[in-house]
Structures are given as structure tokens and as C-alpha cells.
Automatic annotation (TrEMBL):
<keyword id="KW-0378">Hydrolase</keyword>
<dbReference type="InterPro" id="IPR050695">
    <property type="entry name" value="N-acetylmuramoyl_amidase_3"/>
</dbReference>
<protein>
    <submittedName>
        <fullName>AMIN domain-containing protein</fullName>
    </submittedName>
</protein>
<feature type="domain" description="MurNAc-LAA">
    <location>
        <begin position="392"/>
        <end position="500"/>
    </location>
</feature>
<dbReference type="InterPro" id="IPR012854">
    <property type="entry name" value="Cu_amine_oxidase-like_N"/>
</dbReference>
<dbReference type="GO" id="GO:0009253">
    <property type="term" value="P:peptidoglycan catabolic process"/>
</dbReference>
<dbReference type="Pfam" id="PF01520">
    <property type="entry name" value="Amidase_3"/>
</dbReference>
<dbReference type="GO" id="GO:0030288">
    <property type="term" value="C:outer membrane-bounded periplasmic space"/>
</dbReference>
<dbReference type="Pfam" id="PF07833">
    <property type="entry name" value="Cu_amine_oxidN1"/>
</dbReference>
<dbReference type="InterPro" id="IPR036582">
    <property type="entry name" value="Mao_N_sf"/>
</dbReference>
<dbReference type="GO" id="GO:0008745">
    <property type="term" value="F:N-acetylmuramoyl-L-alanine amidase activity"/>
</dbReference>
<dbReference type="Pfam" id="PF11741">
    <property type="entry name" value="AMIN"/>
</dbReference>
<dbReference type="InterPro" id="IPR021731">
    <property type="entry name" value="AMIN_dom"/>
</dbReference>
<dbReference type="InterPro" id="IPR002508">
    <property type="entry name" value="MurNAc-LAA_cat"/>
</dbReference>
Amino acid sequence: MKRISILLTLLLFLNVFPAVSIAGESSISLFVNGERLKLNVSPLKINGNLYIPFEFFIKELDAEVEWKSDNNQVNIQNKLINLDIYMDRSKMYLNGSALDIKNKPVIIYGDVYLPIHVISENFGMKYIWDALTQSIYIYKNVNGIQVSSSKKPNPQLEPIKDIITVTNSQSNLNPYPEPQPSAPVTDNIVIPTNNGEPTIYQIEVLEDEIVFHGNTTLEYSSFYLPNPERIVIDFEKSSFNSSFIDQETGMASGMMEVTHSDIKSIRYAMFEDQYPRIVIDLHENIEYSMIGIPEDNQVKVLLGVTNNTAEPSKDQSNDNDDIIVDDPFIIVIDPGHGGDDPGATGSVSSREEKYFTLEFAEKLYDLLDAEPWFQPYMTRTDDVKIELDDRAEFANELGADAFLSIHGNIHERLNISGTETYYWTNRGLDLAQTIHNYVVESAGLPDRSIREVEYRVLKNTNMPAVLLEIGYLSSEHDENLMLTDEFQYRVAESIVEALKEYYLN
């Protein structure tokens, strides 16, 4: 039982130890396994060190937390760990053994904060700090699964002091450094070939939209962060044009000053040195929509426009417009394989199945997430190995309505081609038949029927479950189709339509 009464006993403590004063009014966002966690007070960054409020330990660690006023001690314990931290000592005690503590706890405006390394070093968690979005991402294992409602692949789960540093703090005790402006991106920029890699070469701010120009088609994903209001856009498998590079630092990072009724500024940097991340700082919360225009190599942010208004699917039916679902159907998408389990290998590209399944699952997630009837989740959002039983248990614990396992097939006879769909027992039969019919039509590959097989992810799930072998990566014909975005979006859209028929008709 968590001892919430600790908050009362802390009052005496607060009168004994003076509070640390800090500068800055912005708030740091906290995400746990990809889900934003709402706390009464935000985490802090002080002198480059991250601190988590006491409330986190009570809410998230399944631990008892007790304040012992006689010796100014905080005790945190669960089934495996008994951790004692003293507010006035440089050591903490783990299961009775003394350990050096890097940073002492602090009090900020009457709230107690513990250093974040206490979590990462003692409770089996990892964290990353994203300075560009002022966000902390904490990852804890749920039966080996990194739970995330975001389709974006999780960053590498290693403690990093600053993944993206736009500027350094101007104050020794300022937890919220402000980025320094650099020259705005302008027109008439020479576009380098960049060895064929997609490149962003211009950001154009118009009255009701922001346009990102590339030298080829740009892949993107976005999410929203409140308090302060921000739109965050990631351009995967891309880079910035050389005009974005700061001449003093040699890094592609900076800020565009804009005069706009909705936008404060636009900041940009390379996220983990892997791909461009752009943060649009807003004056207030507004609706927005992302739309890609491949023929013009553009991505647009439409301000004040919802997804349904901006980019309706040409195949989308209006028959269900009046259907209201109080609790959306939970759909678990399972990208097959991952990590040291690569799956099949393409006969032409030698690309491993684990990458295809993740790319396809991300597209399916986006499409489902845009529908009011569905709430999608993914068993993995990165190249990690998840045990088969853990995939099924993840869906069971969520109380999912459907489980969709995505795969690419392989056969020693390279001319074998087609789509197969698997289920186990009558529980998954109707869903398998419905999805199979839609996918066969959209994929345009031979119909190799639905089959009842005792796969563990099908057998161990408590809801209708389907394993979909979309095509054969061992077939040159199938692989050439399966690895294209156009094919993947088309088939993913057909699965969404199949789920609508299954649940709404």
C-alpha cells in the first residue's frame, strides 16, 4: 500500500531544510514507456542534472514510499529493492549496502525532488533527455515489452546528458535554457545531392501553413506536447541541407524567429544525431494536421485544420459518420521479429523481415490512430527482440479487442507468391477471414487462403488474433512490391477498412 500520508509528514521536513531557488518558468514533459505522465509538479534540470518529483515514485514504481522524519530519510521499497536516501548525506543505501549518490535530493518551491539516476541505477529503468523538446523519456519493462502508444521508434535507451543541445544555460541554476537564434532559412538555396539521402533544404512559413521542402520525398511523423504548446516533427531517414549548419558550432541546430499569430518560433536540430527534429513553438493550443505531397517533395503543417479535414482517404466511406464509440476498440499491432531475430531475408534487397514489419506496422498505427473508433498500440517500436509469450501477454494486459501480427513470408521455392492469413480456433476465424479478403484485394497477390495454426501469439491471446503473412520476401515479385511505401499504405488502409467492417457493421 502506497503511503500517501508522506505528503503530510513532509511538511515538517520542509520547515527544516531551506528550498533551492531556481530560474525559469517552462515545464519539462515526462513520458513513461511513451505515454505522457501528468504530475502535479514537473521534473527539473539543475546544473545539467535531472530531478524527478517525489510523486513519480509513488505513482509509477509500484513501491512503498515513506518519509522518516527523525533522521530526514526517504525509504523506497518494492518486492526486490529497499532503498534509503538521506537528504543531508552523499550516500544512499541499497538493501543495506552503502553507495555513493551523485547528487543529493533538493527542495524546489516546497516540493521534494530526487536525482533521476536513482531510478536508472536501482529500479531497472532507462531514461533519455531530449533538450530540444525539454522532455524526459523513461522506459521500464512490462514483461520485457517497451509499451508505447506512439508509433515512433524509441531512441536508444541509454542515459544521455543532452541528446540535442541547442544552447547552454546562461545561469548556473537555470533548469530551462533558452535556444539562441540563428539566421532564418531563406530561399534560393542550392540543393546538394547528399548521396541520394532525403534532405530538407527550406522551411517556409505562410499564413495558415508551414511547408518543409525536400530534394525528394520526405518521411515524417509528428506528435504534440502541451505546457508549453509545441508541435514536434521528426523526418526519418533524412538530413538537413548545409544551410542549416551553425557556422560557430558546426552543428545543424538553431531557431527561426517568426512573426505569426499562432507561432512563436521554430527550432531545429538533429535528434540523437540520427534525423532532423523540428519543434514549432505555439502561442496557444491549436488544431493542426500533417500532409505529405510526394509529387512536390513537400510536407505541410496545416494550422487550424484537423486530420479528417486535411487529408480524407479517397476510399473512406461516410456510412459510419454517425457512429459514436465511447471506448474505442483497442488494436494491438505486433511487428514480427526484431533484434537478434531478423526473420526472413529478401531475395533481392537482402533486407531483413524485422524492418519490413516495423515499417508496415508504423503506417498501420498512423491510419488507425486517425480513426475515432480505434486506439492502436504496438508491441515494439524499435529494433528489439520481444518474446512471443510477452507479445501475447501485452495484448491481454491491455484488454485488447484484436491482435494483429505482421509478417513477411519465405519459401525455398523462390517462385512461391501470395498472401496467407493465420488464426487459431473459432475466436479468430471471422476476423481472419475479413482481414484476409481486404488484404488479398489490395495487395493484388495470389490468395493462399486462411489457415488454422497453433502459433503461440495466436494461442496465448485472449481476443481475436490474426497473423498476417502479407507476401513472400523470398519472391522477387512480392518483395519489390512489399518494400514500397505505396504498397504498404495501400494494404494498411485495407486492414483499417476490414476492422471497420468487422466492428462497425
